[in-house]
């Protein structure tokens, strides 16, 4: 469990409640307000089957690691539905898988996979260009991964086009961890050897595939940015903004 | 689902969050504060096995009928545990089964079973003393039922003696609906015939037994008030306070 479950709960649930209630009240003066809330895959139950869709969200507790954050996000999904039910508000929610990109966390210890790899490889390229880079686990687990710009486009699309009770699941193409590391290393121009430490570090879940068929049905023409392009654009931003990015 | 799920959620979760956070902050000036929060059996998943104990609380969604109230009570159970974890607060929760008694709801349409029966039989005894009274279903479902005074005593006991992470389940002895109706009719002195309408009205769940073994282990000497005594005392209060009770 997170070391500060109370803070995660109070901060997040208070924000959720205040934003939705404010949007509901404001629209009584000014006409309808659309709200697109962003959930997280942490809300899925820890024993969910793959591919995960929106139906089993509440069929068991989430992972303990981010329990109170997960419950605050679950309550946001529910509150969205309750505003639709009680007040006929046009509130919806989107449930995105892993994403990466500019303006995110690049601290190697806390950043999501792609951003952490970019920061580590850029640093090593500068300071120790031929040393091997050790990654945790075997590199074989699969992860769906999406460029943050695509998620932003989907949020804008949902503003205009999505109006349903269920959270809309969106996720990028699925790659193995080692494929993703390979792509980052090519784009960074990192020449060190990638090695995997499977003796002292375990793999996480081997797969965590979300079912994106509903989004594909509703928005069939949407083209996700190719992973190599997303990585390239993120590196371009990172190189210019490195000092700011690492202060986070 | 309740017609006002947003209101139930916002009112209850805001109260829960504010009371626990206030208790936590106040104790930094004045020494430790104990909080005993009261949950409800609505938090159990709708497909729970009997006897219900505290372990499957989150193993599935609660009944839709009181969904947002149930989620606010679930979050109270969790927040209690998170304050214990993050701030070492001596916060606990009690999960009571059905109870009845003075100062409660006596509106025949909304009151819990015993109070509703008292109000109906008292009214019929006054206005139509020999007419039959029709009850919904077969009368055979079993319900644990507890005098509110006993619950109050247990809350006071828990203030001094309970200090654990899990909600403490407390519930009264188990009777069938028809046994309970028979006892109320004896205490009211209602002479009409009790009949059961199983053609147009269905029974609710046949059993909803909560596992009270933990409470019995911790407080083995506690004696619940006999049901007939609890009913008698509630009727005494109701007769004196009828007009006030029915205004609720």
Commentary on this structure:
2 copies of one chain form a homodimer. Chain A has 248 residues and is an alpha/beta fold. Chain A has 2 domains: 5-96, NAD(P)-binding Rossmann-like Domain (Rossmann fold); 99-144 and 174-247, UDP-galactose 4-epimerase, domain 1 (Alpha-Beta Complex), CATH 3.90.25.10. Chain A is 46% helix and 13% strand. Chain A has 7 helices and 8 strands; from the N terminus they run αβαββαββαββαβαα. Chain A has helices at residues 5-30, 67-87, 113-127, 148-161, 177-188, 213-218, 227-247, and strands at 35-38, 91-96, 99-100, 133-136, 142-147, 168-170, 173-176, 194-197. In chain A, the strands form 3 sheets. A 3-stranded parallel sheet of chain A has the order 1-2-6, sandwiched between helices. In chain A, strands 3-5-7 form a 3-stranded mixed sheet. The first copy, chain A, has a two-stranded parallel sheet with strand order 4-8. In chain A, strand 1 (35-38), helix 2 and strand 2 form a beta-alpha-beta unit. The radius of gyration of chain A is 19 Å and the shape is globular. The two termini of chain A are 23 Å apart. The model of chain A has no long low-confidence stretch (mean pLDDT 91). The interface between A and B is medium-sized, with 28 and 28 residues.
């Amino acid at each position: 469990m997170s070391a500060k479950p109370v803070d995660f709960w109070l901060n997040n649930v208070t924000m959720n409640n205040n934003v939705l209630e404010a949007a509901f009240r404001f629209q009584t003066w000014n006409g309808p307000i659309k709200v697109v809330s962003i959930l997280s895959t942490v809300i899925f139950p820890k024993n969910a089957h793959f591919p995960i869709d929106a139906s089993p969200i509440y069929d068991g507790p989430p992972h303990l690691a981010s329990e109170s954050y997960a419950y605050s996000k679950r309550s946001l999904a529910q509150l969205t539905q309750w505003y639709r039910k009680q007040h006929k508000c046009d509130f919806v929610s989107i449930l995105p898988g892993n994403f990466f990109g500019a303006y995110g966390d690049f601290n190697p210890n806390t950043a999501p996979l792609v951003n952490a790899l970019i920061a580590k490889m850029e640093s090593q390229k500068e300071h120790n260009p031929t040393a091997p880079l050790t990654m945790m686990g075997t590199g074989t687990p699969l992860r769906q991964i999406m460029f943050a710009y695509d998620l932003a486009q989907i949020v804008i699309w949902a503003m205009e086009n999505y109006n349903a009770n269920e959270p809309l699941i969106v996720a990028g193409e699925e790659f193995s961890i080692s494929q993703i590391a390979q792509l980052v290393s090519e784009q960074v121009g990192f020449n060190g050897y990638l090695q995997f430490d499977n003796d002292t570090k375990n793999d996480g879940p081997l797969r965590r595939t979300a079912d994106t068929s509903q989004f594909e049905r509703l928005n069939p023409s949407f083209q996700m940015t190719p992973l190599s392009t997303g990585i390239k654009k993120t590196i371009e931003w990172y190189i210019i903004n490195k000092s700011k990015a690492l202060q986070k």
